[in-house]
Amino acid sequence: MAVSPRDMAHFGACLQIRYRSRESIVRLSASSTLIGWIFPIYRKPTMKKYLISLLMLLPLTLSTASSEEVPTLKDAFQEHFLIGAALNTSHHSRTNPAREPLVSSQFNTITAENAMKWQPIHPRPGEYNFGPTDSFVDFGERHNMFIVGHTLVWHSQTPSWVFEDTDGNPLDREALLERMRDHIHTVVGRYKGRVHGWDVVNEALNEDGSPRNSPWRRIIGDDYIEHAFRFAHEADPEAELYYNDYSIENPPKRNGVVRIVRNLQEAGVPITGVGIQGHGNLTWPSPQLVADTIEAFADLGMRVMITELDINVLPARSEVVTADIAHREEGGDALNPYADGLPDEMQERLARRYAELFEVYLQYRDVIDRVTFWGVTDRDTWLHNFPIRGRTNYPLLFDHDGEPKPAYYAVIETAQRFNQDIEEARTFRNPVMPGFHADPSLIRVGDDYYTVHSTFEYFPGVFVMHSRDLVNWRQIGNAIHRTEQLDLSNVPSSGGIFAPTIRYHDGVYYMITTSVWGGGNFYVTAEDPAGPWSDPVWLDAAGIDPSLYFMDDGTVLYHRQVDGERGFTGQQVLNLETGQLEGEMVELWRGTGGIWPEGPHLYHVDDTWYLKISEGGTSYGHMVTVARSDSPWGPFEPNPDNPILTHRHLPDHPFQALGHSDMVETPDGWWIVFLGFRPQGGNYHHIGRETFLAPVTWSDDGWPVVNNNEPISEIMPAPRLPEHPWPEEPVRQEFDSADLPPWWQYIRNPAEENYSFDARPGWLRLTGSAHNLSDRASPTFLGRRQTALGCEVSTLVSFHPEDDNEEAGLALRGRESHHTLFGIRLVDGNRHAFLRKVQAGEATEVISSDPLPDGDVILSISAEPLSYEFLYQAGEGEKISVGSQPTRELSSEGMSPGGGMSFTGVYFGMYATGNGNPSQAPADFKWFDYERTEW
Predict the structure, then answer these.
(1) How far is CA 402 from CA 99, 299, 350, 559, 700, in A?
(2) DSSP string, 320-338
């Protein structure tokens, strides 16, 4: 995964790189009670909604607490945007180390306050002063910060020689452009890859939005801005490039910046974002002006930075709020009222003002990249001398001694309240693992959660899934990943691996399961759940759905469902040292009378032992029941309110067959995962049994209650765990390596000689065997499960059959008796696309009307909840549909009318076959696309 400098800076000096999502919210455990009012949260169902501040005018309790008692600024906002400060030389100089801890602990981005302006860095022709800027960049790198250079082109603090020739006459356009280019290339080039963003052009507009008539504009023309951005991009193509200005909250000036951005965009000039300087006072700009300004640039596709934030608390002679350093006013004692310190009333007003602004920033966290204060402490602020020299100002969050002010706690409290509000409103969507993720078993190890799932006849077997928030899951491996671990060669469809359980004990992961029609119960172990996993330790052939419980005294309890449809949960002791069972099997519980009392799991909660099972068969009558005892050996008393989870009484509910579950305790209480399916077009489910999530509470009399006894919904409140999405799975799978992601599977153990990534580099070569998909064998097939009701699947195939029996292409597989083949074969000596549907062993076929031209062919399947459509594209031609198929024909119910269920879902796969004879012509596949279009 590529990690940007900004992503790295999110975690400051801790050097921990994590995947970053702007939608991700971390609930802060620390809480400040120092602010005595409620901050309302701005809502923006649409970006244009008028924002009204409802801050309660309640008193502020001034803080004497130290900054260690609350989160730092960078931690409080870590999931929203970067928090930074402008540094002067004293902050990053090695000669003054006392200032370093404050900056490094509170901020994760820094801007050069003055050192990189033209005057200090390039004071005379050919002379550069890189000492202070080298120190600044070194400081940022030392603390893993996002580093911003300020500024490349500005009308102020630029020496007069820049605009003059050696005789003191004004330069012509070309000479000044060359001087600009040389300066930008030298400065940006020196820090290429180290300074991550640049304020390229600074303050190019007047207050009314008209272009400032600076020497840059007078000599070069209005396109000097365009050239500056182009030169900066030439010097460092990876750096972010910004336009930066003050008072752009005022509509006329804001409109001027919008024109600049649009002109650059229309000219194809690279610009990343706009810096809103944020110099304001206690009343200006209003929250509405700030919101309108952010929206204006977001509408242009710009990232937004608050670049020079400070709040002037002193009175002024003029009502004009400006940061133009040329603006000056006469002084007087009345205009310097707080020379001896800021009184409590003003501390409170400053705190409220900062809280008000940060509420707006948080609402626009999706477009704001960073908020940077213009200075670190009140001692450093430029406002002591602006617009009146010699005053004492207090515009920042840290006082003259570097101690946090009430404004600091107000900003932290705003972040905490916002985070809590978002956390409480956060939802998730069921199923959390859509598509074939049957029979989930769940454990927690620290902050990580893992599940394993049934895979039946497919290999590699037993999906291992990983999450950190119980909502976002990714597959990290398979517990059965080597052919020598398990022989699946003779198991029927929906035979093989049933209902695995995962447990963790003393640094070791245990996966225990049943190979039905293939050897019985066994377990494997691993030190890493991603693998590798050990060879199996075989136990017995009595029963299915085995599970383990590790007692505090070292005893390992082994329990499973035995005695078939009307059976019970049996338990024995497992000796891990010998791999042998000890003692007689003890019957624990037969359930409440439902058929197939299976999937037992044992839990110990508050000195009580709970045995949870599923009953009713793994179909529309499925349910979860529970019993309890004072001993793990029973007797077990059933819950009088059983079942604790079912939809068998809700035939019209979109989720059916809820059951086969496992529970875990988290920092947000107990949660349960369980299987279910989503019928489509009646009682037909085709993408398999999926994994759902729901909360578990405990009744006053000590029984688990799932989802407050309410039906399971699609949208539900999310666990209050730090949200942790994973990077999106790529749509395209290239076949340039044999190291495929773990979701690719074969039908039973593969005949490895029929698969090659080396025969044609960059392609997957399939060689058809005599077996086809109707055989209970291992035909040449490599596929992945359908994990969404709507998706698009495509592959590029190069295949030139030599005999009529040879074919290759895409397959939809349900089982041997029900599958659909969409491929290429010979018809009267010509290649044709064909569509063959096999239903209950009977085949019907459609042949393309025209032969295929020479060359590669793209085969595509468009899946919707009720149908599949099959299309091919030869060369540069149009996509042509060969036909369609109702999804119900490959549903579990459609494949097993009046009988048992088919436990797997539809697989998409690439296949090749010789239909009774080994194929002589190989089929080469360049890539395979899988794109979800519907949940």
Answers:
(1) 9, 38, 17, 62, 52
(2) -----TT------GGG-TT
Residue 234, both tokens: 């030439």
Q: Decide: pTM greater than 0.85.
A: no
Q: Given pLDDT bands bounded at 50, 70 and 90, which one contains residue 193?
A: very high
Q: What is the pLDDT of residues 484-539, one digit of tens each?
A: 999 999 899 999 999 999 999 999 999 999 999 988 999 999 999 999 999 999 99
How many residues appear in the chain? 935
* pLDDT attached to residue 330: 83
Q: What mean pLDDT do residues 71-80 have?
A: 95
What average pLDDT does the structure give for the chain?
91
d(CA 445, CA 438): 22
CA-CA-CA-CA dihedral for 6, 8, 14, 18, to nearest 10: 120
Report the alpha-carbon distance of residue 120 to residue 363 in Å, rounded: 38
Q: Looking at the annotation, which residues are catalytic? A: 439, 598
Question: Peptide bond preceding 460: is omega within 30 degrees of 0, i.e. cis?
Answer: yes
For 433-464, give the secondary structure using H, E and C.
ECCCCCCCEEEEECCEEEEEECCECEECEEEE
Which amino acid belongs to residue 435? G
28-37, 101-110, 231-240, 654-663, range with the lowest pLDDT:
28-37
Give, as one character, the DSSP assignment of residue 143.
Answer: T
Q: 3-state secondary structure string, 790-859?
A: EEEEEEEEEECCCCCCCEEEEEEEEECCEEEEEEEEEECCEEEEEEEEEECCEEEEEECCCCCCCCCEEE
2 — pLDDT class (breaks 50, 70, 90): very low
- Token match 């972010």: residue? 240
**Cβ-contact 43, 49 below 8 angstroms:** yes
Tracing tokens 């839990």 back to the chain, one arrives at 603
Between the alpha carbon of residue 51 and those of residues 45, 268, 363, the distances in Å are 11, 34, 11
Is 349 in a helix, a strand, or coil? Answer: helix
Contact 726, 673 (CB under 8 A): no
**Please, which residues have CB within 8 angstroms of residue 215's CB and are 6 or more apart in sequence?**
155, 158, 162, 163, 170
- Residue 855 and residue 649: Cα distance in Å, rounded? 56
Count of other CB atoms within 10 angstroms of residue 121: 23
Condensed to tens digits (0 to 9), the pLDDT of residues 345-393 reads 999 999 999 999 999 999 999 999 999 999 999 999 999 988 888 899 9
The confidence score (pLDDT) of residue 94 equals 62
CB 409 within 8 A of CB 63: yes
pLDDT digits (tens, 9 = 90+) for 606-618: 999 999 999 999 9
Adjacency order of strands within the sheet including 656-666: 656-666, 669-677, 690-698, 704-706
**Which residue type, as a one-letter code, is found at position 615?**
E
Please tell me the predicted confidence (pLDDT) of residue 935.
87
Angle between helices 251-266 and 287-298 (to 10 degrees): 10
> What six digits make up the tokens of 623?
């349910």
Closest of 695, 612, 688 to residue 657, by C-alpha: 688
Give a three-class secondary structure readout of 168-220: CCECCHHHHHHHHHHHHHHHHHHCCCCCCEEEEEECCECCCCCECCCHHHHHH
| DSSP string for 522-590 | EEEEESSTTS--PPPEE--SS-EEEEEEE-TTS-EEEEEEESGGG-EEEEEEEETTTTEEEEEEEEEE-
Residue carrying structure tokens 């029996």: 805
3-state SS assignment for residue 485: helix
Q: Cβ contacts of residue 595 below 8 Å, gap of 6+? A: 565, 566, 615, 616, 617, 621
H or E stretch at 52? none
Contact 817, 842 (CB under 8 A): no
